[in-house]
């Protein structure tokens, strides 16, 4: 059985690093968006050539005129600012996605190690490209990072390039910081991937307990289905001792066991049913059989379904019987008479 770790050993540390990543990735996205479409790369290249720090952009024309091939240094190429823009957008998408997923405990350590490891490699490559060398001009070789990283922006040949120099310097600094953050997140995720023996045993124990719970639920459902399918469950099921099944007052004529326990005067359509047991019915079925009683049709009765033979006992309270005359009757005033002209 393959065990996939789903918990971090340092959950809060990973969450704090994600929050610290936000103020780094957003400036990276902004700066790479500004640098795209060669906003200042060629200008900084030409400014360094004017100061004698690196080669000049017009060497491409000289090389093509003489029929020679010329490879633009990576630090001044269009591939660099396009590459920076792509990883800026990609990392912004991941930071907007992984934070809520991590809070919901779905961003497992193996996935985190893969994502952050890939981002760490991409940002490390971006930092390496930005700090690349330029040795295409033998008279002005640049063996280390470009001048806008190693020198102050105040040495710019053109004052208008000072702001671009600061943007390029800030982009390089943000790229290095993002690389360090992704490296730390990758290390924390890898530490959580290597579990101990106690953690694996606890995981297997929890899994066995969940499996036992599911098995118990399945057994209970199967037993319930067997009870429903058994012939004893239905109209012919005998009465359980101590229980009195009741019958609906409006559907007489069911099985005798459901008529047991009916009141002496159970109402139904058209009158009352006298459920007093007959000896023959009891001897034959062992249950009470209801017998239809006479329906009162006396015009003197104030209720059409009242049985004149039904004895209404006077209720008592505290040993004292209450008569009908003692009960306060509601007063209904007579309807108003029509006025005569």
Q: Can you offer a commentary on this structure?
A:
By secondary structure, the protein is mainly alpha-helical. Among the domains are: about 10-195, no CATH class; about 245-295, no CATH class. The protein contains 10 helices and 5 strands.
The whole-number mean of residue pLDDT values reads 77
- Succession of helices and strands: HHHHHHHHHEEHEEE
Please compute the radius of gyration using only Cα atoms: 47 Å
Rounded to the nearest angstrom, the distance between the terminal CA atoms is 104 Å
Number of helices: 10
Task: Please report the total strand number as a whole number.
Answer: 5
Compact overview of the structure:
The protein has 10 helices and 5 strands, in the order αααααααααββαβββ. With 341 residues, the chain is mainly alpha-helical.
Structural key phrases:
4% strand; MARVEL domain-containing protein; 10 helices; 341 residues; membrane; 50% helix; 5 strands; mainly alpha; transmembrane; coiled coil; 3-stranded antiparallel beta sheet
Can you lay out the helices and strands and say which pair or pack?
Layout: H1 11-35, H2 41-51, H3 59-65, H4 78-103, H5 109-130, H6 147-150, H7 162-193, H8 197-229, H9 256-259, E1 266-268, E2 271-274, H10 279-285, E3 291-292, E4 316-317, E5 320-321
Antiparallel strand pairs: 1-2, 2-3, 4-5
Helix pairs in contact: 1-4, 1-7, 4-5, 5-7
Biased composition (Pro residues): 331-341
Region (Disordered): 290-341
Keywords: Coiled coil, Membrane, Transmembrane, Transmembrane helix
């Amino acid at each position: 059985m393959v065990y996939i770790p789903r918990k971090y050993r340092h959950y809060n540390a990973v969450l704090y690093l994600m929050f610290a990543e936000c103020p780094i990735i957003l400036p990276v996205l902004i700066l790479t968006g500004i640098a795209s479409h060669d906003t200042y790369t060629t200008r900084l290249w030409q400014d360094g050539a004017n100061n004698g720090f690196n080669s000049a952009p017009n060497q491409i024309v000289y090389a093509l005129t003489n029929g020679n091939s010329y490879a633009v240094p990576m630090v001044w190429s269009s591939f660099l600012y396009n590459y920076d823009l792509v990883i800026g957008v990609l990392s912004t998408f991941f930071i907007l996605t992984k934070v809520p997923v991590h809070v919901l405990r779905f961003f497992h350590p193996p996935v985190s190690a893969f994502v952050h490891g890939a981002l760490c490699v991409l940002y490390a490559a971006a930092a390496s490209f930005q700090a690349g060398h330029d040795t295409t001009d033998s008279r002005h070789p640049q063996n280390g990072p470009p001048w806008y990283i190693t020198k102050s922006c105040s040495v710019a040949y053109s004052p208008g390039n000072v702001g671009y120099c600061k943007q390029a310097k800030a982009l390089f600094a943000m790229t290095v910081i993002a690389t360090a953050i992704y490296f730390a997140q990758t290390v924390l995720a890898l530490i959580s991937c290597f579990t101990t023996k106690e953690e694996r045993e606890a995981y297997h124990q929890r899994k066995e307990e969940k499996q036992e719970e599911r098995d118990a639920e399945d057994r209970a459902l199967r037993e319930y289905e067997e009870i429903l399918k058994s012939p004893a469950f239905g109209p012919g099921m005998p009465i359980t001792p101590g229980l009195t099944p009741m019958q609906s007052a409006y559907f007489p004529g069911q099985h005798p066991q459901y008529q047991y326990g009916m009141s002496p005067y159970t109402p139904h359509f058209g009158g009352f049913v006298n459920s007093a047991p007959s000896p023959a019915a009891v001897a034959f079925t062992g249950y009470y059989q209801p017998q239809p009683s006479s329906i009162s049709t006396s015009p003197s009765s104030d209720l059409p379904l009242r049985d004149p033979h039904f004895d209404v006992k006077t209720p008592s309270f505290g040993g004292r019987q209450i008569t009908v005359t003692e009960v306060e009757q509601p007063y209904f005033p007579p309807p108003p008479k029509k006025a005569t002209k």
